[in-house]
């Protein structure tokens, strides 16, 4: 007796229990009318439900349903809708896009679905819906006519959600979130994010990243440059981490990255979402790479290839110099050959070039020997005027006078000469008049802070305070007034000023003013321009002399420099001040200032 097709639903479980195989001659249209999962025995549902607690997923294990189900699915040409459903408590934790699968019956055998993110505790089961016959097999499964549904047994799943992210204990922004500063490597950028996940990171955890670019930092986040889905991994600290390396980017622009997590806790509308579901990095500036980077990848910037530019530039300069040198030599050789052939035909119109020998130049050593070997050689005469600002400064003048006497072969006349005290103190003007009348005498006035203030006092620009610790302090003031007021003396070329270099008492701000300054009055810096002072006194030209000026007078020069160093180290005048002006009274070093 042949069983009618309408009775297969009743007879198939019986045949399966008796171990009877399906008749191979069953018509195709009859196979497509049944739900193959009706053939699963109640005791075999545990074999069909592939629950994996490690990955928090539920798989459909079709092989566990037995050969009749596999044969049935392979022979059918209908669509199935497989979904995970829960009870009234666990159903809110399911999403149709994650926990629903739809496809051809044969695909269930070849590639059965796996449903992820079963991290919330509750009772879950599988629902197998036979979608009926559909010739085009393009419509989605819908409940209605020709659909047959089979449910599996329930499975109990323990929650694997971290306590801070569970629905009953959600505490909001308490997750550990770290946004590392993007690292720029050439024209690529690496972004790093890390956070505390709601559940253990699984292989199917992904994040959607979107890269934006802009001309300014504030506009970053509008123009999309690239987008990609990246995997989420666990870093060494046990946190969930995301790393994204951008492709080669256009330079001279700002770039920022936004991250959207695909975790189920970020997609359920029935729960409050964690704070790390959407992340955004800071905008980072990516500089443009030079053109040479396309040839030499390690030249990511001009600074990185500075050594290469130097080598190339030096090589080019060397080559150009060699070419120019060879060219010049060739041209000169050719010209010499042409001149040798036409020597008798060359005519030089105009004046004849004089080849007379130049005047022989003398050396400094030879010049000094003229005074050392002959007593009749006239010595120079210098009237030296200076303000005895401090005791050490006055001792410096004595060293300077000694150098002028021994190395410059000059007789020095000093207002503060102890041997001439009686003569000078009696009438300083008469004593100075003798030197003014002598045309061979040169007058050198030392510029210093004391001399500058006395000149200002004489001009009425500063009150003149008489010193209380020197009887001869007024002599310099008298001499300065006499030299400044004598008609035509300052512009005669016989008067010059001098300053010691790198000395606070004779700095440039203390230079003497008119009439002791101007185009007709020379100023000499001591000791750099001592040789020019020598030539000025003896009416010589420095360019007419060769060699080192003081090669035979090292000792005299050293004594002068040692005295200058002592004054430089004496900061008494500069350090002890009162009311913004130096106080030169009772300083214990012989200071005599206005």
Q: Short description, anyone?
A:
With 594 residues, this protein is α+β, with helices and mostly antiparallel strands. The relative contact order is 0.07.
Describe this structure in words.
The structure is a single chain. The chain has 594 residues and is of the alpha+beta class. It starts with 7 loop residues before the first helix and ends in a 12-residue tail after the last strand. Strands 3, 4, 6, 7 and 8 form a 5-stranded antiparallel beta sheet that branches. Strands 9, 10, 11, 14 and 15 form a 5-stranded antiparallel beta sheet that branches. Strands 12, 13, 16, 17 and 18 form a 5-stranded antiparallel beta sheet that branches. It is 28% helix and 22% strand. Residues 1-27, 169-175, 344-358 and 574-594 have low confidence and may be disordered. The protein contains 16 helices and 27 strands.
Low-confidence residue ranges: 1-27, 169-175, 344-358, 574-594
Whole-angstrom Rg: 54 Å
- What is the helical fraction, as a range of percent? 25-40%
Anisotropy-based shape = elongated
Total number of β-strand segments? 27
Mean pLDDT: 80
Q: In what range is the share of β-strand residues?
A: 15-25%
- Judged by helices, strands and strand pairing, the structural class is alpha+beta
Ends distance? 146 Å
Largest sheet: 5 strands, antiparallel
Number of helices: 16
